[in-house]
């Protein structure tokens, strides 16, 4: 497929001034921007719904093309590259997901779909770099709202828990993706629930575990210690969002 002719022929596509092999088009509440990799083997496409910033979109395309070798290397379903910044926005990372995760052009132009990487700005604490295809799909399709620029951060978090008092718990022995709100909800429920635990993993791969036996304890890289509920809530939020670390 000749990506130059294919992308430039998309309805309403116009060249992005000063950025070679890049085009912008729009439809209803969506704005679309795409740039080809230097070897023209891939299209890096950013979709935005609602508020749109042309300067930010251009900066994302430029960064994505500069780092296209990293984004396109191997078969990882999600690749996050840090070091991005743009005035007026707090994004610090650009992310690319492959055609197994996104559905851009999947119905109308299947060949273009296979050649497209969906790119979007994000935050470093949202990605571990170890996401499986299923996890990348869930993050991109359900949790992150990657087409919205004015979105809340959704820190990467994998969680397992069981509670003997509420009889609640996660399914299976493995940690699974979860929102931070679930972690903060489950931790206070450990109190006076012997045999209960909450275990979580953050974007850095750090695993922490809170348990209740005769008292509340926290285990992590620094060992195991007793902790109060208030201290645990503060620690866990900092640990997941990246505002602090340690146990």
Brief description of this entry?
This protein has seven helices and 13 strands.
Molecular structure report:
The protein has 247 residues and is an alpha+beta fold. The protein folds into two domains: 3-143, no CATH class; 158-241, no CATH class. It is 25% helix and 27% strand. The protein is built from seven helices and 13 strands. A seven-stranded mixed β-sheet has the order 1-2-3-4-7-6-5. It has a six-stranded antiparallel β-sheet with strand order 9-8-10-11-12-13. The longest helix is centred in the N-terminal third of the chain and has 13 residues, at 54-66. The chain is elongated, with a radius of gyration of 21 Å.
Largest sheet: 7 strands, mixed
Compute the number of helices. 7
Taken together, the total number of domains comes to 2
Q: What's the shape?
A: elongated
Tell me the radius of gyration. Answer: 21 Å
**Average of per-residue pLDDT values:** 96
Taking pLDDT < 50 over at least 5 consecutive residues as the criterion, the unreliable ranges are none
Distance between the termini: 53 Å
Q: Name the structural class.
A: alpha+beta
Show the helix and strand layout:
Elements: H1 3-8, E1 14-15, E2 22-27, E3 30-36, E4 43-49, H2 54-66, H3 68-72, E5 78-82, E6 93-97, H4 110-115, E7 116-122, H5 133-143, E8 158-162, E9 176-177, H6 180-186, E10 196-201, E11 207-212, E12 216-220, E13 223-226, H7 229-241
Parallel strand pairs: 4-7
Antiparallel strand pairs: 1-2, 2-3, 3-4, 5-6, 6-7, 8-9, 8-10, 10-11, 11-12, 12-13
